[in-house]
Design a protein that fits this description.
Radius of gyration of chain A: 27 Å
Oligomer: heterodimer
Number of helices of chain A: 31
Largest sheet of chain A: 5 strands, mixed
Radius of gyration of chain B: 20 Å
Strand content of chain A: 5-15%
Order of helices and strands of chain B: EEEHEEHEHHEHEHEHHEHEHHE
Strand content of chain B: 15-25%
Number of helices of chain B: 11
Strand order of the largest sheet of chain A: 3-4-5-14-13
């Protein structure tokens, strides 16, 4: 890391996240203007976008090589009042919350009070959305059966493909002209809508070129005052680059990065799409520029490294937009889930790892920033050296990069009907979501609490938390004579709530298509320009909606416990079990221990439990997969929780796996915390019994202590573990290196950490099972970073 | 009779392995780190802190009336216990667990086969350890043959204290021997391990020639075998073997102590502390100086 990068990085780390009223004020001013009143939705959005980019403050910070900020300064984070409008109370929460706060100045507060709130109150997307949801939907939503992604943020969930590296906005404008010329007003009832959308795209493209030009102007302005000759040269170069891109296709490495970055800022200024935006397969996109630069002698590896690092810092300057209401109090992360992929396959199916892939890993390791997130794709053809290099970074304990199976991603996309070339250009975004980069709108619609549905089933349609009947009456569980009757009741309940969720999603799809088109994003994703349809209105080549199942481990263990103890061994009656659950096991500790310890549990490569996991998977899959959405695509499932397993846990009472009320559910596809007792290979075998290829992504977390990864041999065995998991079609795995604090927690609550393996000396053992003397020794070794 | 199968064993031979722990051992090493592997009979291990107030399930279920509860803890009369395991099966909290289970070769192979994909991916396989696996030579022999038939890499971790004929029987189905060498001093060996080292030294010399591949494992136990003189003698002996073998130093650790408590045994070495880094380094140097490829910690 050179001096410039060190300084930029330090500044980025030190910058205090602040709420900015700039976007809200500009947007409100435009929406209030006379011009705005007569426009159709796409044109209104395009003109509003143009107005904001024309009037927003332009910032070029000292030493910067890549320029462009969403707000007036680094980490100045705008709000999106047309989607969700922060109240003054929300601003106070954001300013005061203990974790991930946002500074709110008096001026910002005043702007909200005087300008933003009075206009948007009652008119936001969020208002419209809740207005149109059915009573059943609202009840289930409030009970914690599912969440809704689009109540505070726009659908996004998309990734930039390779198209922009060969095309500038002027080229895309030419394509728009072709589409306009081809409109069929004689036969196509949608022709007018398409014309409006295409005109909106033109306006958005012009707006972005103007915005880039303002950066060129700003650079020249700074040049006048700049004394340092080296910096003068850079400013001149920045001005030249911003004059060139994104209007025309980039010619070199630096231009390519700046070109993407303008697109990025455009997308996250136009709306607040989920998972931000993301360059996707960065090593593949940049390779031609990198190689050409090296060949021509205009670029060397160090210059490329510096530019990539400067690019990395830009991501870190853009915290995720803050939420409102309860979510503002609860959700705490600045991460906006831009996940940069490296490695994987080329479009021809060859090994895609190149010198730039390794350079990007260096950058990930050196930057150690919260954002962007990073992922490596590993295929059968990926050299071991690349996987091991990635694992050596994982070992440093910073949770990145996460590791994905390219062959699984391709197979998942093919199953959903993508072409082979489009599948190979794809990857993972957000947490673990599979997508055909540059061509797909894959909307995550909300998390779905599988465990809550079982709780409601065991209470014959009533949510015990509110004592309200919110589900179907599927029968009193005491009357089920065989276990399959319970499964059947659960399945009906599951379908009932999935129907409610999908009906809601389809309405929300249309609300966004009607009121919140995104003409700028539509410029970048195929085939919006060709079809003249917005990204939110089915314009993308592929249109997918996902429902994310949560709590697979917990529900499997619950069903296994009920089958084992109530129906097979008859060591417990359904009445007794329900009584214990109702009492949250108070006075029933023996029952709780029995359920915890004497039940076949998911994560131990034991078919007695894992077959039940398969059954739940099939039910969830069949309830969701293949159903049509309102953008011409289909619903599919994925299995990931981000942090919602904590919220869902809070909404769910005591469960038959021995979990107390309010405790978190299992996360991702991982076993219940502490339920797996046979080590990582057994976990992987259990998890691999999920048919990952029928999902759009699954998330597996594995914990390791640093000692296990100490030497070459440890890394090699970890690489083997990954390869074996991927051979079994696993989708994704990430490794958390455990710290001393976690080991202390394990001493206090051993039952939650019965899966934690530590290396003692020449052998490994369960941490909770070794004597306290030895525990202390390992804690001190971990604290001191000794392996 | 085995007492455990440990998966993702990465220190007992190449690749990712599963280690099968055989129950029963002819030696009585004072630093033993798997004391549950010494006796040939199933034993109850007590995890007292897990025992639940008010629960008497194990007491009720025990046919020998060997269990009772004093004010705080569960008490097992080991004289009465016949190791039937009913108590452990009934205990909701896993406060009683069995060490030792009679199993068929087929059952063990089925369990080991669950991790086959990892053996194939990593060039790993299975390791038979213990206890002393050669004390159950017929079972061991059949198990190893079954493993070889499936193409797995096989290792045997042995104290070396067994008739050579036993070794001869399994040599064709063993890819790697992990052979423990504790001390060259016959008298000291007898005092600390219960038997002298004559058979062990003899077997190692013969196996050095006959085994497909062999590693020597030396537990480094402060106060027993960590003096330069002790280590020098072991190093000289290693040099005198027909073939050169890699050597692993396994530093003593306190893992056996808590296990002793669970088994109702007294820790034979309550005072011994693990060797520190300097001691380990010194020991490493002694072997390395004699050109023996030595690693530590596995």
């Amino acid at each position: 890391m050179n001096d410039r990068i060190r300084q930029l990085r330090r500044k980025s780390l030190k910058a205090v996240p602040e709420l900015s009223a700039e976007r809200g004020v500009l947007l409100t001013r435009f929406y209030r203007s006379a011009a705005a009143q007569t426009l159709s939705a796409p044109l209104l959005r395009a003109h509003a976008f143009a107005y904001m980019l024309k009037h927003k403050k332009i910032t070029i910070m000292p030493g910067e090589l890549i320029v462009g900020e969403r707000g007036p300064a680094a980490k100045a984070t705008p709000t999106y009042p047309e989607i969700t409008c922060h109240s003054l109370a929300d601003l106070d929460v954001l300013a005061k919350r203990a974790k991930t706060p946002f500074r709110v100045t008096a001026g910002t507060r005043l702007a909200f009070a005087r300008k933003i709130i009075p206009y948007w109150s009652g008119k936001t997307m969020r208002d419209r959305l809740f207005e149109r949801m059915s009573p059943e939907w609202l009840e289930a939503y409030r009970a914690g059966v599912f969440t809704e992604f689009m109540e505070q943020r726009a659908p996004g969930h998309t990734v930039c493909g390779e198209k922009i590296y060969g095309q500038g906005l002027l080229d895309i404008k030419k394509d728009i002209q072709d589409s306009l010329a081809a409109l069929d007003f004689m036969n196509d009832p949608q022709a007018l809508a398409r014309e409006e959308e295409l005109r909106a795209m033109t306006i958005a493209a012009d707006a972005m070129m103007l915005y880039a030009g303002r950066h060129a102007d700003k650079a020249r302005e700074l040049l006048i005052k700049e004394k340092d000759s080296a910096r003068r040269k850079e400013l001149r170069q920045i001005a030249e680059i911003c004059q060139r891109v994104p209007a025309r296709a980039p010619r070199n490495f630096h231009e390519a990065l700046q070109h993407y970055w303008f697109m990025h800022v455009g997308v996250i200024s136009e709306a607040n799409p989920w998972d931000s935006f993301n360059p996707g397969r960065l090593d593949q996109h940049l390779l031609p520029f990198y190689e050409r630069g090296l060949a021509e002698g205009t670029l060397d590896r160090e210059a490329a490294r510096e530019l990539l690092q400067a690019f990395w810092i830009k991501f870190n300057n853009h915290p995720s937009p803050p939420k409102v209401g309860v979510t503002a109090e609860e959700s705490g992360t600045y991460t906006d889930f831009a996940l940069i992929n490296t490695g994987g396959l080329t479009t021809d199916g060859e090994n895609g790892v190149n010198d730039l892939s390794f350079l990007i890993l260096d950058v990930i390791e050196e930057m150690r920033l919260l954002q962007p997130s990073s992922a490596v794709q590993v295929s059968k053809k990926t050299p071991d050296a690349f996987l091991k290099r990635a694992l050596a970074i994982v070992k440093t304990g910073y949770g990145q990069p996460s590791i994905f199976n390219s062959e699984a991603i391709v197979a998942e996309l093919l199953r959903q009907g993508k072409s082979l070339a489009d599948a190979r250009r794809g990857g993972a975004s957000g947490c673990v979501e599979t997508g055909a980069f540059g061509r797909e709108s894959y909307i995550l619609t909300g998390y779905f609490n599988l465990v809550k549905v079982l709780e409601i089933t065991l209470n014959n349609g009533v949510d015990p938390r509110s004592r309200q009947k919110i589900g179907l009456e599927t029968g009193k569980p005491e009357n089920f004579t065989v276990f399959d009757e319970l499964l059947d009741a659960f399945n009906r309940q599951l379908n009932h709530f999935i129907d409610i969720k999908i009906r809601g999603n389809n309405i929300i799809d249309r609300l966004y298509a009607r009121y919140l088109p995104v003409p700028f994003l539509s410029l970048l994703i195929d085939d919006c320009v060709a079809s003249g349809r917005d990204y939110h209105d089915g314009g993308a080549r592929y249109n997918t909606s996902y429902i994310q199942g949560v709590g697979l481990g917990t529900i499997t263990d619950c069903l296994s416990a009920i089958r084992h103890h109530v129906y097979e061994r008859r060591s417990l009656t359904m009445e007794a079990l329900r009584r214990a659950l109702k009492k949250n096991f108070s006075g029933h500790e023996m029952t709780r221990q029995l359920l915890l310890n004497k039940t076949p549990r998911y994560g131990n490569d034991d078919d007695a439990a894992d077959d039940l996991m398969r059954k739940v998977f099939e039910m969830f899959f069949n309830a969701v997969d293949g159903r049509p959405n309102m953008r011409g695509g289909r619903f599919h499932i994925n299995l990931l929780p981000t942090t919602v397993h904590i919220y869902f846990g809070r909404m769910t009472g005591a469960t038959a796996d021995g979990r107390r009320a309010g405790e978190p559910l299992s996360e991702g596809v991982s076993p219940v915390q502490g339920a797996d007792r046979l080590g990582p290979t057994a976990v992987i075998k259990s998890v691999a019994k999920i048919d990952h290829l029928r999902t759009g992504g699954t998330l597996l977390n594995q914990k390791f202590t640093p000692q296990l990864l100490a030497d070459e041999k440890g890394i090699a065995q970890l690489a083997n573990l990954v390869r074996a998991y991927f051979r079994l079609d696993g989708h994704h795995v990430q490794f958390n290196v455990v710290d001393a604090a976690t080991l202390r927690a394990a001493q206090r609550q051993p039952e939650k950490y019965r899966d934690l393996i530590v290396r003692v000396a020449g052998y490994s053992d369960y941490f909770v099972d070794i004597g306290s003397e030895l525990q202390e020794e390992i804690i001190s070794r971990t604290e001191h970073g000794e392996f | 009779m085995i007492f455990d199968i440990k998966k993702f064993a990465v220190h007992d031979g190449p690749g990712i392995r599963s280690t099968v722990f055989f129950k029963g051992c002819p030696l009585r090493c004072s630093w033993c780190q798997n004391p549950e592997g010494i006796s040939f009979d199933p034993q109850v291990m007590l995890f007292e802190q897990r025992c639940l107030d008010g629960c008497r399930d194990c007491i009720v279920v025990c046919p020998q009336k060997a269990l009772s509860k004093d004010a705080a803890n569960i008490v097992l009369d080991r004289g009465r216990c016949d190791g039937c395991g009913l108590c452990a099966a009934s205990c909701p909290a896993d406060a009683l667990q069995m060490a030792g289970k009679a199993v068929s070769v087929e059952a063990v192979i089925n369990e080991l086969a669950k991790d086959e994909v990892f053996y194939l991916e990593s060039g790993g396989g299975i390791t038979c350890s213990g206890g002393e696996p050669l004390t159950q030579i017929d079972f061991l022999h059949v198990l190893l043959q079954a493993a070889k038939k499936r193409g797995w890499h096989t290792a045997v971790d042995t104290s070396g204290h067994a008739p050579f004929a036993y070794f001869a029987k399994i040599i064709p189905s063993v890819d790697l021997f992990l052979f423990d060498l504790k001390s060259m001093d016959a008298d000291k060996h007898r005092r600390h391990c219960g038997e002298d080292n004559g058979l062990i030294v003899d077997n190692l010399r013969r196996l050095s020639e006959a085994a497909r591949s062999l590693s020597i494992r030396v537990p480094l136990v402060p106060g027993f075998n960590d003096s330069p003189a002790d280590l020098d003698r072991m190093a000289d002996f290693c040099q005198s073997l027909p073939r050169r073998h890699p050597l692993h130093l396994l530093p003593y650790h306190r893992g056996g102590s808590s296990k002793c408590k669970r088994l109702g045994l007294t820790d034979p070495r309550p005072e011994t502390m693990p060797p520190n880094a300097a001691q380990v380094k010194k020991a490493l140097e002694i072997f390395r100086r004699k050109n023996i490829a030595t690693t530590y910690g596995g």
